Amino acid sequence: MLVTVPYKPRQFQREIHVALAAHRFGVVVAHRRMGKSVCAVNHLIRAAVSCTKERPRFAYIAPTYAMAKQIVWDYAQHYSAPIPGVMFNQSELRVDYPNGGQVRLYGADSPDSLRGLYLDGCCLDEYGLMSPRVYGEVIRPALSDRTGWAFFIGTPNGKNQFYDIVEHAKREPDWFFAEFKASQTHILPASELEAARRDMTADEYQQEYECSFEASVKGAIYAAELAACRAAGRVTRVNVEPLLPVDTTWDLGVGDATAIWFTQSLRSGEVRVIDYYEASGEGLPHYARVLQERGYLYGQHWAPHDIQVRELGSGRSRLETAATLGIKFKVCPNIPIEDGIHAARMLFPVCWFDADKCKAGLEALQHYRRDYNTRLNEFKDTPVHDWSEHGSSAFRYLAVRQQAPKEARSRPSMPAFPQTEHGWLS
Length: 426
Known about the structure:
About 35% of the residues lie in helices and about 20% in strands. The protein is an alpha/beta fold. It folds into 2 domains: about 10-210, P-loop containing nucleotide triphosphate hydrolases (Rossmann fold); about 225-410, Nucleotidyltransferase, domain 5. The strands form 3 sheets. The protein has an 8-stranded mixed β-sheet, with helices on both faces. Strand 13, helix 12 and strand 14 (about 330) form a beta-alpha-beta unit. The chain starts with 10 loop residues before the first helix and ends in a 17-residue tail after the last helix.
């Protein structure tokens, strides 16, 4: 049966389709309004209706479920509508085709909902706005048993995991890489580009239209501090001092990710950030095992104030539950977020980060940003609630407890003995 869908690819979209057909993995960096999302949806639709495997499964993955619904669901319905026997499931953002194929939309903000799937192919749109763990821990294993394919599309947003996958694609012979700058595609009129150049900062224009990874993340909270750390060589290999206690600072998620920073504090004021761990969907016993497996000589464990809240079911707080597992938490002072962000900025100049062990945490700090209010033409006070918040909140707590009064954060002292005229040992 010959079916015609209302999609006529542009030259550059056609190049992407051809490259995807010849490679299992690929990366496309494209300027805004190039049509990359439309290209991705149509590639997934064609793959789903032509796949000869049993029960083919294809996925479009956006940074959040809301973005997938808002940006792509309408496209998926529009381009699939002419196919006889097609069915749409609005509640699941799923399109079912008569051959048993399926295209479904997902959000990377809920990675656990993707676990256990098998995929014959998928597209990760705006990968730079997702957690780096989504592909390696969830999507890549889902492609293995059916040798599924995957491609990444997006516009740069600083040097994050999208930048890393671009560099990987350039090196690997079985991957393809394509870049489409506005100055090269001529899709947008020159007058529009000139107007955009006048209305935007130089960094914004280079990032959004000329695919520059050098521009900083828009609204990034710690961009300057991290840049200073890297310029000073303080993101490097950090040796662990074996006789110096390792403190941990946590952001505890409820049905969400939990992040832990591992640090050693020197009397000079220097803070060695030696390790980072993050996971989601796990209980406190899991993190107790992580601490044990790390094998550090631990000092104090710090948690946010809400660890003291009692759960309705058990009547116990997580503070009490952690104590039964051998983790005796101290509680960080509860201060406003803005004050905590200020404390974190003050902490960066004395921090040394282990580049390898703290890579995921550094990505979170790099991506931690304020949302932009287009109506008021200004950044919002509240940071964006996404995957980067967990590691960044834990770092904020680290800064707050470092600045807490000395008596509130000092390590337990040795037991005192009565002083006599003959001295301490009398």
